[in-house]
Amino acid sequence: MRSIRGRLLFWLLSCLALAVVAAGARIYTQTLDEANQLFDYHLKQMAASLPNDSFGPLPPSRAEGPDAEEGLVVQIWDRNGLQLYFSHPGSKLPQRAELGFSTVETAHGSWRVYSALEQNNVVQIAQPMSVRQNIAAGMALRALVPLLVLLPLLGFLIWLTVGRGLRPLDQMASALGRRTPDSLDALPEGGLPVEIVPLVHALNDLLARLGRALESQKAFVADAAHELRTPLTAVQLQIQLAERARTDDERQAAFAQLKRGQARAAHLVQQLLTLARQEPGVAPQARSAVDLAQLVRLVVSEHAPLAADRNIDLGISHEDQARIFGDVEALRVMLGNLIDNAIRYTPPGGTVDVAVRLGAGTAAVEILDTGPGIPEDDRERVFDRFYRREATEASGSGLGLAIVKNIADRHRATVRLQNREPGPGLRVSVDFPLG
Amino acid sequence: MRLLLVEDDPMIGESVRKGMRQDGFAVDWVQDGRAAELALETNPYDALLLDLGLPRKAGLEVLAALRRRGNPIPVLVLTARDAVADRVKGLDAGADDYLVKPFDLEELAARIRALLRRKSGRADPVIQVGNLVLNPATHEVSLNGKPVSLSAREFGLLHSLLERPGTVLTRAQIEEKLYGWDHEVGSNTVEVYVHALRRKLGANVIRNVRGVGYMVPKQT
Question: pTM of the entire structure?
Answer without folding.
Answer: 0.60
